[in-house]
Amino acid sequence: MTGVFGPDYSDSYDAFYADKDYGAECDLVEGIFKDLGHPVRSVLDLGCGTGRHSVELARRGYEVVGVDLSGGMLERARRRAAAAGVSGTTFVLGDVQNVQIGRRFDAVLSMFAVVGYQISDAAVRSTLGNVRQHLEPGGVFIFDVWYGPAVVAVGPSARVKVVPVEDGEIERKAVGTLEPGGHVCSVKYELTRRQDGKPDAHSSETHRMRYFFEEELGGFLTEAGLTLQSLAAFPDVENPPSAESWNVLAIAAG
Which of 88, 226, 239, 252 has the most CB atoms around its CB within 10 Å? Predict the structure, then answer.
């Protein structure tokens, strides 16, 4: 995964997702932990970004190691942990495909479509194999991906979001196109930062995201020594996936 989450996007990330309910997502994750029948004490957060899940889980008493490929986002994660006064958090710069932590965890978490950024078969296999390597026997892997039937049925659309920042605003335009042969949705983000008394600043990034079909995803997990236990609409996890469920939550056992 290269060429994404550069300085401009990293600087804007938390502003764009300020309305995302990370607390509710951690409630959901904790509920899954409690259903395991044995305690979860340690969590590996692969693709932790600015640490919103990692810090919230650490606040709840878990030992968390967060991994991300973006140094800028990790710096924000470290500042977030320090501001929250939580202990038991460590942040590591690395690629989810091959980072080596040197230990196993009771649970591995990979949220906000991190697995989808692994667009080739080889990248998916490397990532899932690395998850298995870091997961304790009987541990759980929780992740979300874009759901193929919904992506194909609904299709990408152009979107614009404007968020306020301390000295102005940032506008993000997103335009997606499908690459059906590779099960990829390519999204071009154009950012415009408007600050008082300064000329507009422009930047852009293209994020290529893989979407998955259930049988395909189950096959990849099986190859890695993991078992797909459930797939549900996300965040409405009480519902099964449908042609309207662009995001789905997967739970796999080690």
Answer: 252
